[in-house]
Amino acid sequence: MSVRPNSLEARDAASQMHPMVNLRQYEKSGGLIIESGEGIYVKDINGKRYIEAMAGLWSVAVGFNEPRLKEAAIRQMDKLPYYHTFSYKSHAPSIELAEKLLQMAPVPMSKVHFTSSGSEANDLTCKMVWYRSNALGKPEKKKIIGREKGYHGVTIASGSITGLARNHECFDLPLDRMKHTSCPSYVHYGKTGETEDAFTQRLLTELEDLILREGPETVAAFWGEPVMGAGGVLIPPAGYWQGVQAILRKYDILLVADEVICGFGRTGKMFGCETLGIEPDVMVVSKQISSSYMPISAILVNDRFYQPIADESARLGVFGHGFTASGHPVASAVALENLKIIEERDLVGNAARLSAHFAERLAHLAKHTLAHSSRSIGLIGALELAPWEGTATGSAAAAIAAAAEEEGVILRSVGEAICFCPPMIITQSQLDDMFDAVGHALDKVAARREERAAEAAE
What we know:
Protein name: Aspartate aminotransferase family protein
Keywords: Aminotransferase, Pyridoxal phosphate, Transferase
Low-confidence stretches: none
Shape: globular
GO biological process, one term: biotin biosynthetic process
Distance between the termini: 28 Å
Strand content: 15-25%
Helix content: 40-55%
Cofactor: pyridoxal 5'-phosphate
Oligomer: single chain
């Protein structure tokens, strides 16, 4: 693909430095320019409509044109377009949103601190973990354990907790005090002949061995997504989270649950922690908190976490941190209205009710000759592809995602999988449209491969 001179695509390629792309390739080809959205659909500048099967970036719960969110933003813009939460100041939208989140939390939480993205929230949580250790007189207790394939953001600290090589390479990451334990994906890392229970026990033993090797007195916190989204929708086996929590309690290690993708209904319950039986000290939320209509994220902390930090701020005279946009009144007002919509329209229930049909349709795609297996929970899932001989890692999934785009569905390829995370307003018939189109894409790619094989044989 090449861009037309002076087109919007060409202007984009000439002016913007985009994330998560081959920058040189983008200069040549440009990208898909989206102009409008309605419900589960978006349209490009040429008028082609797509099912947005990734809800943007795992995040647009209520669809792409919800008038109540626009109206909430306008009302707040008219009243108070901006104010901060520094220096003993506040405003009603951030107060009401904090109260709402504490009321919604699946385990007792004490305070909420607002930031603007999941990366910022995880980064600040990391800082607060270190601050808390110092407050407790444990300056050596600073190491953080993340997991291979885990994703927690791209700042220096959050990017270091992330366990994806593409977010580390050439950035001088991860930081030395960030450690990583194995990814709990049985389909990817289970050994030949190893049962799922044995796999789980192996990972738990590995985690405890890592803590003992580093020294429990040096390990402050463990970070984990209930279901690992950006790593490829990786669902942990039964007993994994229960075992992890027992080990963390044994060695006095904090648990941070990254609910940025799972939170607000994606797994069929309000939070992934409820679905997986997790009782964290800290929850990080973003994305579906506002359906990404406004950039906002939040850190929910329990009293065990909060009290030493508050005591230390009293000793020092200040909690020396702040972002200009923390608790932004317009973002807070939009998030509040978004959460009301999720509750009033029972979108969590919709995800739960459609979960079986979603899994069934994914399993049917897994029978395709190009596929290996499927996995899902609630309204998030992935289709794992069979290895293609002579094909570079990830290129098979990228080919299918590109073919799906031709068929009018926007997906995301991760490694050898294509991922699905549609808006939570989706209906069963729309799910069928989505999976039918992806089935056509699989057939199209298979036919192209057969044609190339036939040509090579001549």
